[in-house]
Amino acid sequence: MTSPAHDAGATGPSDTRDDRDVRGDRGPGDHRDDRPSGDVVDVVGLRVTFGSVDAVSGVDLQVAPGAAVALLGRNGAGKSTTMRVLGGVIPPTGGRVRVAGLDLRTQALEVKQVTGYCPDVGGLVPRATPWEHLQLSARLRRLPDGWEGRARALLERFDLAGAAHRVTAGFSHGMGRRLSVVLAALHDPTVLLLDEPFDGVDPQGVEATLTVVAEARAGGAAVVVSTHLRELAVQACPDAVVLRAGAPVARLSAADLGGKDGADVYRALLG
Amino acid sequence: MSTGRSSASPVPAPRSPRAAVSAAVDAAVRAAADVGALLRFRLAVARGRGRLAAPLGVAVLGSLTLLAAVVPGLAAQTYGGVTREDVLAVLPSAYLAVLVVATVSVVASGGGRELLPAHQAVAYPVSPATDHLGALLLAPLNIAWLLQCWTVLAATSFAVGPGPAEAAAAVLALAWVGAATASAQALGWAVEWVRRGPHGLVLIRSGTVLVAVAGVALVATGRLTGLLASSPTVRLAAGMQDAAAGRWSPWLRLLAAVLLLGAAAVLLGAGLAHRVARRPARDELRVETADRAARPHPASDLVALMRVDRAGIWRSVPMRRGMVMLAILPGAVAVAGAFGWDRMGIFPGLVASGGALLFGVNSWCLDGRGALWRDSLPVDPLLAFTSRALVLLEILAAAALATLLLASLRAGLPTFDELAAVACALVVVTLQVVATALGWSVRSPHAVDLRSARATPAPPLVMVGYSARLAFGTTVTGLLFDVTSQAPWTWSVLLSVPFLAWSGLRLRRTAAAWRDPSTRARVVLTVAA
User: Are A87 and B528 in contact (CB under 8 A)?
Assistant: First the structure.
């Protein structure tokens, strides 16, 4: 597999950034200069309750600029709920959540501006085309002219250029997953949130996703990846947090989780 | 709903008639058992008020049916200037209307409602026969069907009068309702089979145009009444007279014939359902795989949101078909019935109510699983709400306007007062429906996949409640404007003010609820589930 970190420097939005700077435009990823130097994702004691069920209880998560953390755990461990909170879709019941220095409770819109979220299920409007998804995202995020080049490059990389103008209802599961990653990455977010991005995706799609993660990190973004797949989590992220029953049980490095020993450690942590 | 892994088919070709009958009986028994299992599963997954709503709803509908079959017969010989003979004369048309209403419902929904949505049923070996029986079982959960059924029962009861004959007539009327529904279901499968076949769309559209032209020709030449007088349903009315006169032998023969017709239609429908299951839904597949030309970038956030919202409706084959039928059918009824402008006020409400039932009562389900992504976009929730409301408003208003234009073909030119009343009714009921539908959408979201023409935005029994409430509210409002159409136009305008204010207030309340992150999360998580 090609090194994602190496690819990050060869392709991507930086190709045209100088030109935009001359024009004074603000392009995807241009807010990187404003990125906070501390933890971009700062979650302390996160609690999410659905009725009488504690979906998440006491999650702490800190992710620095350029870092990537994998959320691991069994079904129902609270991974997707945590991601949905970070994506601004679910309000936290308790705890403190700051994203890029912004308080999620009071500055939800601003947080959404700097995050790119790939939801775990679907994530696509059934009767809109990929291009229309991208147009909507670009419009609402105020991306300046020129975003189309980045969009086309991403679609090409994820092998979706040929389906850019087809409604997504006819997409396969893997195509949908790949497009969700494209949508999350379009604006070079300060925080990239990928929930189960490898689920049902072919090897090329997995490689493209790993490249996107590496590029985001190289650009100083914080990345959070939620997945069941330990091997891919280790490839994508140097650190991992293992959740069990809505609470974190361990924070490990990729080295701790890699190989057969890592598999045994992971299995033990899952309970 | 059929998953193709049939429990009843394909059965190896039997070698003797006896074996064929035995196989058919086995398949029927298995399909009936499967329907029971699916029904229990459907009821078991109901939560909260839904658990209570199902038995309560069935009890209410059963009671209303019983009342419709009994109470009118107790009325005096002449009621409101209408005699029993008058009603007896229109009974054949009323019986025929049951067949028409049931057929339109089944054809419009691509084969009737599903006992279990296709995306949920895919894991189970649900046979087309089971699917067919399920669709028949759910056919009564349709307000148009229910109203026609109650009308027929009430008219029959009044025409026959009290006594043992009333019960006999009710039995015959109910048997006819069942046979007509089964026949309509079989016809619906046949239409769906043709639609899914080669050149199916062209054939169905041509057929629809031919039927419409024939209808217009019948009305224009004044032959419709004569045709109705020679309808086979005249024999049913004669059967009612036999019952009233105590001639039980011909009544019994007629009842047996009707029951036989119903049974044959059920069997025929099961066979056709098998054939339909073997053909993919071409139109839906074409829409899902066709390329859409890229459009210029939207000029504003609202335009961007509305564009995606509109795509959710117009790129959905079932919704597009439903809206077109809603725009045309009531107008056709108005033309056939020679409705004047003084009775036009109820049409906008009927059309808007029907349109809202296609998706509006669960508006956020248009986003499906994309709701999670959409809600992660940096946009004021109020703007997203406004977009959804405007799209719903424009589509309902356009359909209602099309109906009025069609109806006006025979109604002539309205007076200014009549025009004002109809225009006010259009604006008032459309906003009324939008406010109601969006309120339900936020309060009671449902996870549904509206890709199939057979899917409904909420469970069937809930849909009955929604449609009854919408139809009642908008019909009463429309009737009020029918009254003001006979008064100076200022009355209509003045009458509009409180309605508009109330709808505006409801919309504002719903928008406020939508802005609440917890409420929004509940809706988004539900529709994206």
Answer: no
Q: Is the Cα dihedral A52, A58, A62, A63 positive or negative?
A: negative
Residue with tokens 């939508």: B514
Gap from A11 CA to chain B (nearest CA, Å) = 25
Give the span between the Cα atoms of B212 and B201, in whole angstroms: 16
Provide the strand spans (E) within B337-381.
none
Distance CA B425, CA B479 (A): 9
Provide the strand spans (E) within B277-434.
none
Whole-number Cα distances in Å, B37 to B50, B116, B133, B376, B448? 18, 11, 12, 39, 21
- The closest alpha carbon to B334, from B247, B410, B271, belongs to B410
- Please count the other Cβ atoms lying within 10 Å of the Cβ belonging to residue B519: 17
CA distance B120 to chain A (A): 16
- Tokens representing A226 are 């939620």
pLDDT digits (tens, 9 = 90+) for A48-91: 998 888 899 989 999 999 999 999 999 889 999 999 999 999 99
User: Mean pLDDT over all residues of chain B?
Assistant: 88
The verdict on a CB contact (< 8 Å) between A136 and B292 is no
B52 close to B153: Cβ distance less than 8 angstroms? no
Query: What averages of pLDDT result for each successive group of 10 residues across chain A (271 residues)?
Result: 34 35 39 60 93 89 94 92 94 93 92 94 89 96 92 96 93 94 95 94 94 95 92 92 91 87 87 76
Provide the pLDDT for residue B438: 97
Whether residue B10 has a cis bond before it, omega within 30° of 0: yes
pLDDT of residue B496: 96
SS3 at position B223: coil
Q: How many CB atoms lie within 10 A of CB A244?
A: 17
Q: Is B304 on the interface with A (CB under 8 A)?
A: yes
- Please list every residue in chain B whose beta carbon sits closer than 8 Å to the beta carbon of residue A180: 373
pLDDT one-digit tens code per residue, B1-23: 555 444 444 455 556 778 877 88
ipTM score for this prediction: 0.84
Residues of B in contact with A136 (CB under 8 A): 298, 304-305, 307-308, 377
List Cα–Cα distances, A210 to A68, A163, B240, in angstroms. Answer: 11, 22, 76
